Amino acid sequence: MTSGELSLPDLVEFYARRIEAEPSLNAFLDVYAEEAIDRARQVQEKWRSGEAAPLAGAVLAIKDNIAIQGKKLTCASRILADFVSPYNATVIERLLAADAIILGKTNMDEFAMGSSNENSAVAPVHHPHDPERVPGGSSGGSAVAVAADLCTAALGSDTGGSIRQPAAFCGVVGLKPTYGRVSRFGLVAFASSLDQIGPFGRNVEDVARLLNVISGHDPMDSTSAPDPVPDFTQNLHTPPESLTIGLPVEYLSDEVQPEIVQAIETAKSLFADAGYSVREVHLPMTEYCIAAYYIICTAEASSNLARYDGARYGYRAAGAQDLEEMYRRTRSEGFGKEVKRRIMLGTYVLSAGYYDAYYRRALKVRTLIRRDFNQVFEACDVLLTPTTPTTAFRMGEKVQDPVSMYLSDIFTVSANLAGIPAISVPAGTDAQGLPIGVQLLGRPFDEATLLRTAAFLESHLK
Amino acid sequence: MEYEAIIGLEVHCQLSTQSKIFCGCKTDFGAQQNTQVCPVCLGMPGVLPVLNRRAVEFAIRMGLATHCRIAEHSIFARKNYFYPDLPKGYQISQYEEPLCEDGYLEIELESGEKKRIHIIRIHLEEDAGKSVHAEDYVSENETLIDLNRCGVPLIEIVSGPDIRSPREAYHYLVRIRQLVRYLEICDGNMEQGSLRCDANISVRPKGQDAFGVKTELKNMNSFRNVERALEYEIQRQIAMLERGEPIQQETLLWDAARNRVVPMRSKEYAHDYRYFPEPDLVPLMISSEWRQAIAAQLPELPVARRERFVRDYRLPEYDAAVLTEEKPVADYFEAVVKAGADAKQASNWVMGDVLRVLKEEKIEISAFPVKPEALAEMIQLITDGTISSKLAKTVFEEMRKTQKSAKQIVEEKGLVQITDTGAIERVVDEVLAANPKEVERYRQGEEKLIGFFVGQVMRATRGKANPQMVNQLLRQKLSRQDG
């Protein structure tokens, strides 16, 4: 791109044609081709006059749970099928100010609830290398858009692995920043204390460039951190002089696919060969992560999704005789199965008599999980784990068995519970040619080290 | 059997901040429906609350004024229930760890006895919108929603079960209202709903320790309604106990028009609010510096001010109580004194004519046309004998109408009191000469006729003669037999 051989409007048109040529992927829910081409002309002009901002040239896809003013914001749900956002998310404001071009909205599991993208109310997203397989979820549309060359890079959201797991399945880089690093204003809430917007890219550098723009305190989000934002691209390709890499033993059980274990071994020896210290560490609370995660995220979801009641906006069931019937029918018809399952579970764990046994206990476990990580990070700079226990699974394989679906998040949820940054980097393919991802986890607000480590791995795994 | 009522009040006060508690929307009362709204208070997908610092400050003011402990660390919680005027499906409130805890408010009963009412907690929360049914533009099977009020900051003040009668509840409410108005955090208007009161009530046989089953009473939208509703509910509960019927724990609505309570339909409130900590807001941290800065800016509170008025201005208790009832009135009074008026005279004028006019014209003292300095000037004219108290009434009315100064009015209308002995003497002589019969009767001992002579002189001078001087001269001349 920087060579300037291809014009920016041409590039946008190229992507728009690719999207049209690959309709069966179902990666996009909405494409703003004409608008994006117009904007590309303006950016091209700024580029020529040397006034272009840092993301000039980037053509982005945005997960459809992030608000863009005047555009549909559906969360791939029937209940918001016709909802148009009256405002921009903070990340969108920042991307536009940085001269990024937004090409469209990507498909997802409804309200970001799912690990396979089969929970989209519109259509499932298909894996770019094998249409019989899932791309991962919930940000499957964004992962596929990057992997299938339908855009330069993309934004997704990650509540329990929803960026990293599809990034691993699709063979792209996906980062979940530290909780509070990126403003959540304009991200439709699934589980507020876990949700974080993050970038997908074909390489670590693209991810770092996007993170530069979307990071930083936002007065509209009280939970966004005031911490300074360094330039994540600076020294990105200079490997850290010394590093201690921790290998949590709990993350390498027998259930992990052998090729993925092998990928970890390869990464391990690359680190060791570079003179980095690699050591086994323990995160004893790991076995409680999934339980704590599904209690906390469903509890928050049950409250966050209460606003979709048909009274003010979104879908409303017709012909209800009274208020309660309107609520019941609107929500029964408007939400999909998985969303309803989680709302019910969350309502249950918060209800009188069960709160202490479930929600309060889950919060305590969460504190202990944080403590685990704090202790490990006293000695280690970065942790290395698989992103997923398996490569992309077949469509329909887990959809009838929620627990096995939930277990596909087993290596990713801990970063959300602890609020730490984590990235998935492509690390080869399995016997069937399906991508493998390895996960690096870092200290809170130390995405810089995390990204430099990821860039090192990326350059040596090629 | 003799019964005793146990009453606890939950008072909601709308804080008079410029903007809402979690967004920048205005809070003006009575604006066109749904004009003071934005994506945040409408609960659009993806929005987040940002806490209004001023609302926190107002809540702390009330906490300090009621001797509460201000928590260094408090948290917000979501109270979950479905209702059309609650856009998010939950209200952001405080549950565990509220901002203010464990204070008290002192009330004074008719007997003069003072009583402390425990304040369990004061917490911050957001108001809901309004469902509109009973307006002519709403058809029968419709409910319209006005979300202007949604997100207006509220404090909820929860009293202990210390109130024993509807009258005590009334006094407690009056004190709360006075306090929030002194603190300038709420206008205290029950009719407009900026001050709202719910009650928990139970009765028990006198002497029994255990509380009876309580009911919750809502929708009492005036001070008088609170008293009436409590009175009604206490009698209802006693009658049930007397008949041996169990009291249901339930929520009741006061129906002021029919003078009775009606049970709230159970669908109108949730049985389980599923409170949990609000993940979109960070814990509220109050530094001791901030708390102290707020404390330092608190105005003098009503009780202290009343005591000072008695001490410093030597006013009767009654005057001090009336003058300090409302902060602006007390401020006005003090400004009059500061401008040089005699304190008791100033008190008489403010309590009398000024408050009367405010009541007649239904205006606040801020809108009263006679400024304190102008009233002080008029009072000085009385004190130095330029005008009589009687003339002053005329001057006062003229000042209200024209907003001219007292001196100017006195000059223009020639209202200056005649204090020239010679001038008064001439008139006195004329009056005596014109009424020889009355002079004779007076001298025979009919001394009450003095009033008649004073009246004649005042009429002849059109009220301008100094009454004391007229009196003195008349007595002098009438006592002389030679006349």
Description:
- The complex is a heterodimer of chains A (462) and B (483).
- With 462 residues, chain A is α/β, with parallel strands linked by helices.
- Chain A has three domains: 8-214, Alpha-Beta Complex (Amidase signature (AS) enzymes), CATH 3.90.1300; 244-282 and 371-461, D-Maltodextrin-Binding Protein, domain 2 (3-Layer(aba) Sandwich), CATH 3.40.190; 291-356, no CATH class.
- Chain A has helices at 8-21, 33-48, 90-97, 140-147, 164-170, 204-214, 258-273, 289-304, 323-334, 337-350, 356-379, 402-407, 413-418, 447-461; strands spanning 28-31, 59-63, 101-106, 153-158, 173-176, 196-201, 244-248, 277-281, 382-386, 422-429, 435-442.
- Chain A has an eleven-stranded mixed β-sheet with strand order 1-3-2-4-6-5-10-11-9-7-8, with helices on both faces.
- In chain A, helix 1 (8-21) runs antiparallel to helix 2 (33-48), helix 8 (289-304) packs across helix 10 and helix 8 crosses helix 11.
- Chain A is globular, with a radius of gyration of 21 Å.
- The model of chain A has no long low-confidence stretch (mean pLDDT 96).
- Chain B is of the alpha+beta class and 483 residues long.
- Chain B has three domains: 3-291, no CATH class; 300-412, no CATH class; 421-479, Arc Repressor Mutant, subunit A, CATH 1.10.10.
- In chain B, 39% of the residues lie in helices and 18% in strands.
- Chain B is built from 15 helices and 16 strands.
- Chain B has helices at residues 53-65, 166-182, 223-242, 288-296, 302-313, 317-324, 327-338, 343-361, 372-383, 389-402, 406-412, 421-434, 436-443, 450-460, 467-479, and strands at residues 3-14, 69-70, 73-74, 77-80, 90-93, 100-108, 114-126, 130-132, 144-146, 153-159, 195-205, 215-218, 251-255, 260-263, 276-277, 284-285.
- A nine-stranded mixed β-sheet of chain B has the order 2-6-7-10-1-11-12-13-14.
- In chain B, strand 6 and strand 7 (114-126) form a beta hairpin.
